[in-house]
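Protein of interest.
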Amino acid sequence: MKSVNSLLRLFKIVAYSALGAIMFFSCKKNNPTPKTVVTTELDPQIKRNYFKVGTYWIYKDTVSGDIDSAYVTANSDSLRPAGYCDPHKEYYNEVFDMRINVVSNSPGVPAGSAEETWIISGRRNGLIIQVVDGKGSLGAQPKEMILARYPVQAGYMPPVHEGCVYGGSPDSAYVKDVLPSFTLNGRTFNNTIVSGHMPSKLFDPAEADYVDYFYLSEDAGVVKMILAPKGSSMQRVLELQRYHIIK
């Protein structure tokens, strides 16, 4: 009888041990190790171009004489998932977006109506401008253009990306020059990046049939735009006349 009881006790011990092991591994499976969160804030050079609602720029088109007023009508600064390069980590990058409505005094356009909408976005290593609606010149270009990629270097600009996932830009962008001091309409702007854009993979502006230029200063954002080739019926040359910045 003793041996039977001993066997029963041994059976119970083995059964309980097995059940405990099953429960342990089941709980472990349902409660995975928390992932490490990695957050990357925007470089101060990029964040310098983040302006809030109430900011405006007044441009004059030196070709047509039109006055274009650009207003920041919405802005957001947030963290965005940036890919999963490492299965044990979650990556988030700070990004910003500004919606800018452009109001023109062009003939035939109702007073105060927005003819054009730009969205300027700060990403991990650069700035992008997206044209939502456009008057001919900008509207004929690809919908996204790289304004600047940091660190700034002369020559072709690689795609602006987030995290370990690279995102391309539909146009070929390059840095033509970086001007320590740029004077326009009696104002001097510091560290102005002159970037060129074309819709194909042609890196030589002389070979491109459509070239735009943006002058991006660290003081006031975009201070000058040359849109469409010289002599084109769609060409616009917008020069900053005055501005008001809110950060």
